[in-house]
Amino acid sequence: MKRLILASSSPRRKELLSMNLLSYEVIPSTIQEVMDPSLSPEELVCSLARQKAEDVFGLHSEHVVLGADTIVVNNGTVLGKPAGREEAVAALRSLSGRTHTVYTGVCILSEGVERLFSVSTDVTFWELTEAEIEYYVNSGEPFDKAGSYGIQGLGARLVQSIAGDFYSVVGLPVSRVVRELESFGISAVSQEDDI
Question: Are strands 64-74 and 4-6 parallel, antiparallel or unpaired?
Fold first, then answer.
C-alpha cells in the first residue's frame, strides 16, 4: 500500500497531520526554493509547494507525497521568514492595525496524479504598541515563521480576527487536504486498519 510522505520538516504541519490520525513519514525537501516574482501569490505558493513535493517524489515515486508552503502578503509585499530581529520588528510594524492575506499552497503527487491548490485567509491584527512588538520578538517565536508570527502560539494575541481557514494560517488547510488524500486512498481509517 502507498504510504503518505510529508515533504516538510515543519512541526506545525506534522502536528496537524497527526491530529487527524494520519500515518505518514517525514522526508523534508532539500531543494533551494525558487521564488518567481512575476507570479501571483496563489501561483507562487503553489509553485513552492510543487517544488518541495517534486523534490521528494523524485526519490519516492511509489508513494504519495505532500508538499506545502505558506506565504504572508501585506499590501502587495510577500513577507517570508525574517532573517533577523530587525526584519521581524519591521514586519510586525507593517502588519499592525491592518488586514493581510495568508496563502498556503499544497501539492499532492502520486504516480500519474497531481493535486495542486491554494487556500487564502485574511488576517487582521490589532494596533500593536512598540512594547507588544518587542515582547513578541523577544519570545523568539517569529523567527521560523512567514510574516514573523505564529497564530497558534503567542502570536494569537496579535490577531483581532480572521476570515477563512484558521489551519491554513497555521500551515496546512487540513480539511481540504484530508479530502484530497482520500482520493489517493489515504485516510485515517484505512491506515489504522493496516497497523
Answer: parallel
Residue 165 bears catalytic tag? no
Strand partners, 68: 106
Check 36, 69, 144, 193 and give the catalytic one. 69
pLDDT digit string (tens) for the chain, length 195 residues: 789 999 998 999 999 999 887 789 999 999 988 889 899 999 999 999 999 999 999 999 999 999 999 999 999 999 989 999 999 999 999 999 999 999 999 999 999 999 999 999 999 999 999 999 999 999 999 998 999 999 999 999 999 999 999 999 999 999 999 999 999 988 875 444 443
CA–CA separation, 45 and 55 (whole Å)? 16
* Contact by Cβ (8 Å): 142, 89: no
Using CA atoms, how far apart are residues 179 and 191, in angstroms rounded to an integer?
Answer: 15
Q: What is the pTM of this model?
A: 0.91
C-alpha–C-alpha distance, residues 92 and 123, integer Å: 13
Half-sphere CA count of 8, side-chain side, radius 13 A:
27
Which of 61, 46, 1, 6 minimizes the C-alpha distance to 29? 6
Cell of 9: 520538516
Instruction: Please name the residue that has the C-alpha cell 496524479.
Output: 113
Location of C-alpha cell 515563521: 145
**The three three-digit cell numbers of residue 89, written as one number:** 520588528
Distance CA 38, CA 123 (A): 24
